[in-house]
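Handover notes (outgoing to incoming on-call)

Open items:
1. (S)-2-haloacid dehalogenase: sequence verified, structure written out, both below. Nothing else pending on this one.
2. Nothing else urgent.
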Amino acid sequence: MDHIKAIAFDLYGTLYDVHSVVARCDEQFPGRGREISAIWRQKQLEYTWLRSLMNRYVTFEQATEDALRFTCRHLRLDLDNDACKVLCEAYLRLQPFPEVADTLRELRRRGLKLAVLSNGSPHSIGAVVGNSGLRAEFDHLLSVDPVRVYKPDDRAYLLAETAFGVTRSSILFVSSNAWDATGARYFGFPTCWINRSGNVFEEMGQTPDWQLGGLDELLPLFDSRGSALSRT
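(S)-2-haloacid dehalogenase structure tokens:
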């Protein structure tokens, strides 16, 4: 039996649907929303990884705007400053996945400490969580901004261990991003990969301790006191 004292959640794509910006993209560029969102998200991730490798940190808001501008140039779309502002602000109002709110409340009821650990800035994380009405469910909203490097760098994951004040083996890290779950597993967190789309996990030398189809599937892993059941 393992005993998990706390859970750290990735934000983007795990708790909140990054593609909930599609409607706003469609408003600006009719019929192109899904295409824009897919490329925008991929470039956003690439820019965080590349900036970490180059030691050229910028805020998540800047990386997000840069990725959007690239996307529109790539797709030959005329993005003016007003449209850019509207679409970037849509990232502050992402929608949580349907099962998220009830799952977080039940985990807290069972006595678990919860945190967000995200590449987002303090402003971005606070806006997304606050706009969805879920701020009260978290003990900590942790941004990589203080260490100025993005996940999957170890310094980012260390933020959760420090904030919770318990050993990393007692913190379950939950992410829908396989690269993120891999980095967390190398750091020493027990990990849970939320695989909503039936994807294949990365071939980078690690596997998640649990693979689930949605956040609500976390609940059967814990008894009513918050004690974690054995790995599957």
